[in-house]
Design goal:
alpha/beta; four-stranded antiparallel β-sheet; 26 helices; elongated; RNA-binding
Length: 884
RNA sequence: GGGCGAUUGGCGCAGCGGGAGCGCAGGUGCCUUACAAGCACAAGGUCACAGGUUCAAAUCCUGUAUCGCCCACCA
């Protein structure tokens, strides 16, 4: 039996037909809306995965969050649309295709630009759909009928317009700048795409001879981590306040090895405390040196080619790589007696985020976006809460990022991407950004050439929320569906992507791109470190779905979402979620097995049990709505789990068994109530566990509101509010306490669950007596006891154990079965615990400060608690006395 | 160097001013006609440390320690 269960299903398998049914019925396309929200739209754009991508845990979590939001919105009656698409991913794709060509024995340079781009499209056709299929596997309700792509003709048109408009508005300019150059990818890399890696290096102290000795000083010593760059030195900097070097300012140095005469100059950038206080300055190969060079009018000498190999004109150094040149330069200095000394020095080096090659600061011609005019508004809309971050503390991180933002290098020396629409006439010098390709110069008629660079991938992704919605050709499509409602993403691309979307959207649409930004925690491996191939600590969501179903994975992931920045992946949560899905299925099976004579009808809270579960349900919906407002997915899943399992299954279903068996009118009422609670719970669970809930919904008897649960309505908290019932909750509290107490007694004395026990009951007052009387059948059945007597004046029988619950004492008759020393020990332990509580509350309630300052309802509550404790203590004491 | 987060039972985490909770693991007893991927019961914590605010602190403030992340990048 158990073995059958395990082979019964690969969870994932039965999910697929349901997905196809949704898809075929058009459920994923934009919905028309209904009810009070029907006229409003709710749109999400998916962060476009790279076409090179495979579904990883980050996607799994992020897509679950979005699907949960959009599914709930759909059920709430909004006109929903979740826009799907992929990113062409410049460097990532080019790297893959390069590799493929290499395997085929050719290369990009060999086949040329046009053929290479075709190869990229071919690659996309073959592999680029993988991730979309995987997203489908998760059950995501994206609009698959209208998939977007950042390199489609329409999208390219939008990108081109952005470039041209910004260029003509003076926001895009060309400049010679130091950029982070990857000598392996042979392209510029944005600052934020570079990764720093700590490296154990050295500080070399080099002697630089003065052209003419000054006051007997023949040389200065400079400290450097990169001796090879001395070939491009065009100055030596000192701090103007540094007394040691004051009289050297303005003098010159005869640069060794290259015999270049370079000036000693003053700049406040120099820290006199570090090294020797003299800084060799290489404007073409260091960003700070570049800045100093600008201020002090130094030459810029580029010593490396695009592969970071020393260029012609440097004798034996020409043709050497960076590392070879370093070794050779140091050796030469040593030979010349100019190597002062060497120290160990740890520092960090920039590496390419794609290929991890050390980046070279390299002077080259690049295109930039001037951000000053854009960033102010982008800060404003977050500052004033027009765009909200969840959790809220990310607001400050966003603002800080904008604050420190520098001009953005957007040109990349790649082939795969949006080619920069700049056209140049070499004949007359004309140049412009053009919306349409041109062959000849509009000014002189000579042939023109187009810029060969392409745009940074983020330049196109920044348009994602509006370029996917018809901009700029059909701005009216933006009406009503723009701004979008939710943007969910990982924190690492908050600046790179989120801020840039805000900037470009405000400029081009005059609107914010989205109202809420969800920054979800980063999924770390179980060891707390980032998941990575090299560490081998990663987890594959596809395998997780095989093991736990998409439902199990989704629920299990959301259970782990908190306000923290990271989430240490915990597979056991997925296991409990899979078990939870199973529990839901089984509970539904129980309900349906008992519906053979079912007559549909309105729910009717006839008994205290009904009133209780309806009340709990009403509070659940209210509380879920509140948690959804703050996008608190951990809270949402925990509440659903607790309600369904611990209240509905553990108690309501158990309480309903005797009623169903009894037959008659109460059976009919109970059936309807079970169906009602189950149906409502399925709706609440559906956005997170779409498959199980849909499957059960399909099997439920009776008329359906909609063909699919996916399109059904979200339970209305206001309509349910009338079921809130404190009294019923208290009354069922008495039942559960009593039953648990009886079971506990049974377990304590090792009495088999099969043995029927006898009890007598002493209610404290009329009300308790009435409640108990009403519930006695249930209590008798769940506790497996026979109730001999209920009366306010019963005495505790000899040889019995007592169960204390609110307002009632239940005496379990144990004559002959039990060691009463154990019972005494138990009562004494309980007394001890309560005695501590009593003292705590007595102290609190005799504290003048508390009485005068605390809120009256708190004082009342605590008084009641104390009274309760004292009462219970007294009752326990009585039991002890009777044990003798 | 600047900023942010974490520190709660064996493990992973909730709670974030008013009597310490969940999941997993472990213990005991149950194949109770929805479910052994289950049910019942029990056990397990001076909420990192030190000060402070408050009638009241796991919860707020300050500092310390440990771990982690982001940003900057002093040659």
């Amino acid at each position: 039996m158990a073995a059958d269960k395990k082979t019964e299903q690969s969870y994932h398998e039965w999910e697929e037909p349901l997905f196809n049914a949704w898809k075929e019925s058009g459920c994923f396309e934009r919905t028309p809306g209904f009810g009070k929200n029907g006229s409003q739209t709710y749109t999400i754009v998916i962060p476009p995965p790279n076409i090179t991508g495979m579904l990883h845990m980050g996607h799994a979590l992020n897509d679950t969050i979005q699907d949960t939001c959009i599914r709930r919105a759909r059920m709430q009656g909004y006109q929903t649309r979740w826009i799907l698409g992929t990113d062409h991913a410049g460097i990532a794709t080019q790297t893959k295709v390069d590799k493929k060509l290499a395997e085929e024995g050719t290369s990009r340079l060999e086949i040329g630009r046009e053929a290479f781009i075709k190869a990229c499209y071919d690659w996309r056709a073959e592999y680029g759909t993988t991730i979309v299929n995987q997203i489908m596997g998760m059950g995501c309700s994206c609009d698959y009928s209208d998939e977007k792509f950042t390199l489609s003709p329409e999208y390219a048109h939008a990108v081109r317009k952005v470039f041209c408009d910004w260029y003509h508005d003076g926001l895009i300019y060309r400049g010679k700048r130091i950029v982070n150059w990857c000598p392996s990818c042979t392209t510029a890399i944005a600052d934020d795409e570079a990764e720093y890696v700590d490296e154990k290096g050295h500080l070399w102290y080099l002697r630089y001879p003065l052209t003419e000795p000054v006051d007997g000083i023949e040389y200065v010593v400079v400290a450097t981590t990169r001796p090879e760059t001395m070939l491009g030195d065009t100055g030596v900097a000192v701090n103007p306040k540094d007394e040691r070097y004051k009289n050297l300012i303005g003098k010159t140095i005869k640069l060794p090895l290259v015999n270049r005469e370079i000036p000693i100059f003053a700049d406040y950038y120099v820290d006199s405390e570090f090294g020797t206080g003299c800084v060799k300055t290489t404007p073409a190969h260091d960003p700070n040196d570049y800045a100093m060079g600008q201020r002090n009018d130094l030459d810029q000498i580029n010593i490396f080619d695009e592969h970071a190999v020393v260029v012609e004109g440097y004798g034996k150094f020409s043709g050497m790589t960076r590392d070879e040149a370093r070794e050779a330069v140091v050796a030469e200095f040593e030979a010349l007696g100019l190597l002062d000394h060497v120290e160990d020095h740890d520092h960090s080096v920039m590496t390419c985020y794609r290929c991890h090659t050390k980046l070279e600061p390299w002077l080259s011609e690049q295109w930039f976006v001037a951000v000053d005019r854009l960033k102010e508004k982008a800060a404003q809309v977050v500052e004033d809460g027009t765009i909200q971050f969840h959790p809220a503390r990310w607001k400050q991180v966003y603002l800080d990022w904008l604050e420190n933002l520098k001009d953005w290098c957007i040109s990349r020396q790649l082939w795969w991407g949006h080619r920069i629409p700049m056209f140049y006439c070499d004949t007359c010098g004309w140049e412009d950004a053009c919306m349409e390709d041109i062959d000849v110069c509009p000014k002189c008629g000579a042939p023109v050439r187009q810029d060969t660079d392409v745009l940074d991938t983020w330049f196109s992704s920044q348009l994602w929320p509006f370029a996917t919605q018809g901009w700029p050709e059909a701005p009216e499509q933006l009406d009503g569906t723009y701004p979008t409602q939710v943007l969910s993403t990982a924190r690492d691309i908050m600046g790179l992507w989120v801020a840039r979307m805000v900037m470009s959207s405000l400029y081009f649409t005059n609107e914010i791109p989205f109202e809420h930004v969800i920054i979800h925690p980063t999924v770390m491996a179980a060891d707390g470190k980032p998941m990575s191939k090299s560490r081998g600590n990663g987890v594959d969501p596809l395998k997780l779905m095989e093991a736990y179903g998409a439902d199990g994975m989704r629920f299990g992931l959301l259970l782990q979402v908190t306000g923290a920045q990271d989430l240490k992946f915990n597979e056991s949560k997925l296991e409990s979620s899979r078990n939870f899905a199973n529990k839901i299925r089984n509970a539904a099976r129980f309900v349906m097995l008992n519906l053979d004579d079912y007559v549909p009808g309105d729910p009717q809270p006839a008994t205290l049990a009904d009133q209780w579960i309806f009340s709990r349900l009403a509070r659940l919906v209210e509380s879920l709505d509140k948690a959804y407002e703050g996008f608190e997915f951990g809270e949402i899943t925990r509440e659903l789990y607790a309600f369904f399992w611990n209240e509905f299954c553990d108690w309501y279903i158990e309480l309903s068994k005797p009623r169903l068996n009894a037959g008659g009118q109460d059976r009919a009422i109970c059936q309807r109530n079970l169906v009602f609670v189950l149906n409502t719970a399925l709706r609440l669970l559906h956005p997170i566990m779409p498959f199980v809930t849909e499957q059960i919904y399909q099997e439920l008897p009776g008329e359906k509101e909609t063909e699919f649960l996916m399109m059904a309505s979200w339970p209305d908290a206001e309509a349910l509010a009338m079921y809130k019932n404190d009294e019923a909750e208290r009354a069922i509290g008495l039942v559960t306490q009593t039953v648990s107490g009886i079971r506990s007694t049974r377990a304590r004395y090792g009495l088999s669950p099969k043995v029927e026990l006898n009890v007598v009951v002493k209610p404290e007052n009329e009300q308790a007596a009435a409640v108990f009387a009403e519930q006695q059948t249930l209590i008798a059945s769940l506790g497996k006891v026979t109730i001999d007597q209920i009366a306010q004046d019963v005495q505790k029988p000899q040889e019995s154990s007592v169960v204390l619950s609110d307002g009632v004492e239940v005496y379990v008759l144990l004559s002959g079965l039990v060691d009463f020393e154990a019972e005494r020990a138990r009562l004494e332990k309980q007394c001890k615990t309560l005695e501590k509580d009593r003292m705590k509350f007595e102290k609190k309630l005799s504290n003048q400060g508390f009485l005068s300052k605390a809120a009256p309802e708190i004082i009342e509550k605590d008084r009641a608690k104390l009274a309760d404790i004292v009462d219970t203590l007294q009752r326990l004491q009585d039991q002890l006395d009777q044990l003798g």
